[in-house]
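Table S2 (text version). Query chain:
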Amino acid sequence: PRFTYTQNPTRLLTKPSPATSSSPSHPVERQVTARPTPIQQQQSSEGTRSEAVVTPHAFVMSGLSALLDGEVPESGTEASDAFERAEAGRAQAESDANEGRRRLEVARQQFAEYANARADESVAFGEQIQKVLGIASEAAGTHGDDAVMRAMVDGIVDLAEAATGAKAEAQAMAATAMEDVNKAGAGAPGGDGGDGGGDGGAGAAMEEEANGDKGDIAMEDDAAAIAAAAANLDPAMNFVERAKYIPLRLDMEERKLLRLLEAAMHVSEYTDKVDVLTYRSKTGRITEQLKEICAIMCGLVVATDYRRGQRLIVDKDFAANAAFFQAVFEIGRRHKVQNPEKMRSEYGKMVYLLQDSQMEEVQELLEFKLVKPLKTAHNLLADKSGLAMLADGLMHQATAEIMHEGKARHEVQREIKAKEKAREHLSRRYATAVLSSEDILSVLYSISDNNSYLRFNRDPVDKMIGYLKEYFEPKTPEKGFSLGITMGMGGARLSHNHERQYTYVMQSMMLWREVSNDMFKLWYLAEGDLLREGGRYQLTNTGQGLNRVQSAPGTNKAIHQVLNRCQSKLGHWVGSSVVHLGDHNVPNALMFIDKYTQVPRILNPVALVVSQVDELCKDPGLLRYVEGAFGSADGCRKAILADFFRHAFDGSGADNFFDAGSCIDGRLTSAWNWCSKIEKKGYYPVFKLSGFTGFDGGDFRS
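Corresponding structure-token output:
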């Protein structure tokens, strides 16, 4: 007998296929030949029938027993393929259900925000009508029994009554929408603290945040530090606070180990072999890949330093060399935080590898841990009783970034010498028998590296904010350079007038600035969420391939604090405040960090082109081109900036409002979409003349 096996593993449909049928009637269904069950074998042995016949009930019970006993079909058989398809279908169904719940929550929140915005507008509209009514009443009093004035006043009174009714209705709708959001948030299924088995991010993240992140959100040794970080995210941090999240600069010996790690991760196919949908044991595949990578690193050590490598592999016991492997992976993580443009493919494999190594069943097989806390400037000083140095008044001068723009050469040299003297003074003042001058200089260099990072990643946002304020008025648009956008025109998915779009762009870039300013701290929290012991995730097809969907309570709480800080500074917030994290848009904290490290890659080329327009116009031929195409150099700058501020913030980049729109992550999606269309812009020749080749870094001539 032949039976059809659907994607639901708990349901075997007993639909005998006709003998003449060559393929299933449904594309998902697959026909498999059932193996003899114990009932069949018993019936055959007793001779009750000349041919083994199985009933549908017996087949279902036999298959169910096999599933409950943990038995899986042998590899390579039709039954094993059907089983694998069923497991993949079940996982995808769970993912779709979680994503549906997430979309419903987002829709509720966006509708509540929309209703509140309409209610506020109704209130403002009603106030304006009352003012007009007062003026009309005074005018009617001066004109006596003028019928036209009386009719106008009566019409305004009717309009005021209609506005009052509309205001009450809008406020009631907003209150109902917010009540629905609060009920959904309170009753949403949460999960067990981020085990990832279908929590999809939203429900679990909301529950964990509501509970104050009571669960373990990081590695055991770093749990307290990460909780404090999420609770006190402030851009105006002093050096004591900043140093907690600034990694130490690598020394020469550590750079040698870094090259070993990069070589091992470069040739590794870890995610290709582990992140696949299959019923086979994932724990075994993870352990096998981890040991293979450790073996590769041991071989590289032998190749570079034979004696050291000989000591490392003399017993072929990986657990005995746990300290070595922990140090190598910690160096790689530290290097990536300091240099986001490095290890662009290796870092993702490394983090996923370390994430899997934190699973309890993997640690039992591996017999050692691969993760240890990052070495930070604060940890070094705390271990050697040198924290007092961070409160010294010379710290700013000793770590300041030297800006040469607009300064004479002798001024720059004087600042460099003052910085060197401040470092020497601090190293002499705070050096002890335990804390050497080299340790102090290492801390100062590391903090200087952080300042350099801020210069190249936060300053482009400051430049674009400055251009917005310089070339555009908040309320009155200049003719031909209005920032207003209309849904359906130019690819826009939002409708804003000039004033509203100006506010929307300003608050988006203010948020990006705050995120860039606190990136080291957010990165620290993100790694804590990814590498927490016992952390689980769900491998899901998000529409962009298989991704690890995992809640990130520490990162989620921190970004909401940044968002609340921006909202309190700006007073008025335009658009949605939904943050996607742990869903199909931003599957996990690694994707979140990777997304916001692209902000300077987008803004820096635009800022450089705008700043070089005057330099280009020094050439007579290029000046004629600019004047012919844009009217003037100033017109060229405004044309570039106006198009960027309109269509890099127009809600485009996806075919629905869950993936783009005005949400926090959708703003960056729109900017990416604008970058992908730069070749079609009328001002693209100006970009090429400025030396631009792309938005991927290293694209301008020196």
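Notes on Table S2: The CA atoms of residues 38 and 662 lie 60 Å apart. The radius of gyration is 32 Å.
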